[in-house]
Amino acid sequence: MLILPNVIVASSTATTAIAVVKPTLFAVATHRHRRRRRSHTHHLAQTVALAAKKKKTIVNTNLPSGGKGFGRNTAIIVHQADEVDDATSTTSSPIHAHLVQWLSSHPNTHITSKFVIRPSTLGGGYGGFANNFIPRGELILQIPRELCVTYDDVLHDSTCGHVFQSIKNERIPSWGMILIAGWIAKECVIAQREPSLLANHNNVDASNNSRIKHNPYLQSLPWTQGGSFSQDHILFWSQDEVETLLGGSKAYADALLIRNTVDDAIKRLADVMVSIIIHDSRMAERSSQSDRRQLPATMSNDEDEADIRERYSNAVKGAFVISLSRSFAEEVEYDNGTTIEVENVLLPLIDILQHSNTPNTMLESYDDCILLRARRDIEKGEELFHQYQEEREDVIPPHKFFTRYGFIPGVKEPIAELLKSKSDLFF
What single string gives the DSSP state of each residue in 293-321? Predict the structure, then answer.
């Protein structure tokens, strides 16, 4: 089982101080910690096994020196929504344009006209950029919490919330990652099986009315593009590849730990989730036949069930990569002021930012929204960065950056070549 050390939060009189932890597989700039208060009497002895990407302590009343975490304060609307009439002004990528349109349809979303999406200067995907000068402290993005993927979405799902609630209650290792990954995997498999849902992510009104609440966001994630859940990550390596390339390396034990954790999650979830997906498809078929607006979905023989099981298993692997590389871990402080629990959350659009050990943005968390601000003056043309984790051996060594986030900061050489040459980064 993959166990990370407990999160230690420094004592502070400021209720806004929080520590942020990113999921351990992909610790890019997506996992943050927030602190919020709510009533709870149970004290947790340890945090999630697979932690979020970023670990940082931030006090929201100041401009912080670290850049990955964020704290949660009381409700606030810093900026009313900017209308985005043409999302192509923000990005030329159709997938991200649809995401921007969906986010902008919410009245409390703010996307500054100075923010654009382009291929990252680091390669391997997209990133956020300043297309004009952004002064220190200026608001860049404001994303309503209800558009984020949270534990509330998972635990209140009428079809499977009880399953995930049981996992949470058991406090099995990495239960937080299992909640987020297991749930978005189910949502994506359902969307893939229904062409109308995939088509509707192009239509903001239809997406808002879709029973797949986060469909435009889920469709924007790189692991769903092309209909495949496969990614370039150790979770998709064959066992022979793991033994041949990682055997004897510093990364070997961590890679096995991660793979075993995900395999255990699939075994725990597959039966019930396959049944839920089949039931959902049958209900969709009946609905389409009654209103004649859709072609009926083909469903329900042994071959279909086997196909769904394989799809869901692969989707869980992909979802773990997404959760570990793009999710934020927030600290939730309960009303007694001493009980702190870590919760993972996916933040649409914010999670597109790449990692840097010297980030130029910072996060603030409130009950109703997440804010992204400039932590220093940002010049026109600069890429926007978060800090997933501090690049220190005692925080996260290079080989764990690879096993958890899928890359090593500053390393351009193919990882396979480094492993074959027995690089000091791994051996």
Answer: SSPPPP--SHHHHHHHHHHHHHHHHHHHH
Q: Is pLDDT at 10 greater than 70 in this prediction?
A: no
Q: Considering only CA atoms, which of 309, 321, 310 is closest in space to residue 231?
A: 321
Helix (H) or strand (E) holding 57: strand 56-58
* Under 8 Å between Cβ of 372 and 350: yes
d(CA 52, CA 33): 8
The residue written with tokens 């050390």 in the block is 5
* Residue 249: CB atoms within 10 Å: 20
> What is the model's pTM?
0.77
R_g (Cα) of the chain, nearest Å:
21
Start-to-end Cα distance in the chain: 23
pLDDT tens digits, one per residue of 105-149: 999 999 999 999 999 998 878 999 999 999 999 999 999 999 999
**Nearest-angstrom CA–CA distance, 203 and 383:** 29
Which pair of tokens denotes residue 330?
């927030």
Q: CATH assignment of 18-149+327-420?
A: 2.170.270.10
Domain positions in the chain? 18-149+327-420, 160-324
Residue type, 416: A
What is the token pair recorded at 79?
A: 């900026």
CB atoms closer than 10 angstroms to residue 239: 9
